[in-house]
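Continuing the series of single-chain predictions for the mutant panel. This is the parent chain; the variants come on the following pages.
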Amino acid sequence: MSREELREQLARLADTAPVASVPADTYRRGRRATTRARLGAGAVAAACLVLASALGTQLLGHSPKADDVGTSPASPGVPDHIWAPPYAIPATSDFKVGRAAAAYVDTRGQVMVVGSDNGRYHRLALPATDAARAHPVVALAPDGRHLAAVRTLQTSVGGYRSDIIVVDLTTGGARYVLPRGGREDITTLAWSSDGSYLAWQGVEVNGWTIDEYHPTGTYQVGTLRMADGKTRQALTLGAGADTIRIGARSYSDERPRPLAVSTSGQVALVAGNTLWLDGRTQRVAMRVSDAGSDVVSAIWFDRSGVVGTLYFGRGSDATIGSLTDATRRSSLGVQVPAYRGLLANGQVLVQPDGASTYAGTTTVGVVAYRPGVALGARPVIAVNPHVTQLSVATELMAPGAHTVPWPRPDWPWSTPHRLAVFVGLPLALVGLAAAGWRWRRRRLTHL
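Parent structure:
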């Protein structure tokens, strides 16, 4: 077929083809559909931006550095609020974190130190402090420069023994203290009010493994002099020393034994209702009933000697004052007080219901007590739940203005935060983009 014949054939087909009826608004409808598709894509993009902004505000705003939590206060000192990490945070093995305002162990067993100059919270990776116990035993010196902790180490025969690590928070250095017997399970640490002495208490153990624990009933008390590192075995208490004896009655007392050390290195310990003072004993003046007896919750040295807090059980207010003379005590107006430190002017820091870590925010109060005068605790520090073994650098607490206001810390990322940022956010954005693409295709298909 020639070119001319092809043209004639196509012309005949065109003359006989049906005529399509195209509505006059077809172009206008097409433009509207395109506009709707563009608006849908814009809405999806806006939703992606809103999601990214929300996640970024909540997650990316947290500092990724473990040692950069918190904001600098107006002036150095002890914070007016002690916060607990909401989750496990990264730990640092660099102990040079600076002078501390407070230290504690949270209910996850994390050893936390709060800086006095920058308000930052540091989780310290102290070696072997939780090898055989649920929570480490720690105590911060009153000057905030040293932190003591009990280490639990495995022996060559597969058992455990404990010693003490004392960390210098200003240099990062550490010294280790091994009790003379080498078989103690150290349970209590106490600093003198000026930080010149550290005292410890432990029970001798025969056979301490992960499955067995055989205490002998003999307790050892020793001290460390910080100036030269010399240690001294101060007290040895045999079995039965923790018995409460009042008249012909006797009660077995297995509660923690309050421990204190003076600025001259003298040690005091209450076991049962006996005050042991470097080899000398003296009965503690206690009440007694069929339901029980007074409990000595804390002791410390002040200008008059050894004083402490006692309470008679739930529902009764604790008293503060002389242990041996019941007439020289004052009502605290609180129950089950935990001792948190002695200030330079003789005032005392106590935390009502200090053993309760789940009931809610508690307060640490300052008490200025006088014999025979009922005084309450004036709140100065709010303490969040899950904070245990709180130690405060009392040397940093000035009379009158005891604390400084610090903002709530921004905690570093946890594993869930990292997963949410690096996995959840991209998946959410991809999902929204896919949903928008499918919606646009469906709209174009129905034109």
